Amino acid sequence: MTKIEPLVLRGPLVTLEPLRHEHHDELSEAVRDGEVYKLWYTAVPTPQLMRVEIDRRLALQEAGSMLPFVARRNADSLVLGMTTYMDIDPTLPRLEIGSTWNRASVSGTGTNVDSKLLLLTHAFEVLGCPAVEFRTHWMNMASRAAIERLGAKLDGVLRAHRRMADGSLRDTCVYSIIASEWPQVRSALQYRLKRHLESAT
Known about the structure:
Blueprint: E1 9-10, E2 14-18, H1 24-31, H2 50-63, E3 66-73, E4 79-89, E5 94-102, H3 111-126, E6 131-137, H4 141-150, E7 153-163, E8 169-178, H5 182-199
Parallel strand pairs: 5-6
Antiparallel strand pairs: 1-2, 2-3, 3-4, 4-5, 6-8, 7-8
Helix pairs in contact: 3-5
């Protein structure tokens, strides 16, 4: 796999589009929905630091280690949040899906299921990844539960792995899905997405 170029991934509920500086105002408005940046165990940007975060992600994209997306709801073009392919290793190839946050008000609506299905399908079926990784704070129970619902398995915990903005040390939970597990994971995600679509009609 060579460097992953920016691309658009479109599902029935969500479109993932390449992050651009022009997304700043929509993202700043989106992150105020639920104010998840106030949770000490997350690394979600504040509205005031959104431009810095966009610059950071685009710099990593230029370096080849990240491909950042903005999630937009198809029904009304509302920007929901951000997600990325990160820690990209093109030689294996392997990557992590992470640095994800979404509006609190869309939790449970199927948009995150659609987003993860798009990212995982492209990673396994187009890029040919033998494994896709997810990482989160040990204390972020909601994130851990969401990752486990995807079908990812816990590989281990990196103790005192990273220093947080408040100075505390983060224990990082490392999860992964491997290629042999992907057909079952895909079927489960497709079933969950179908239920959301049916409930919306």
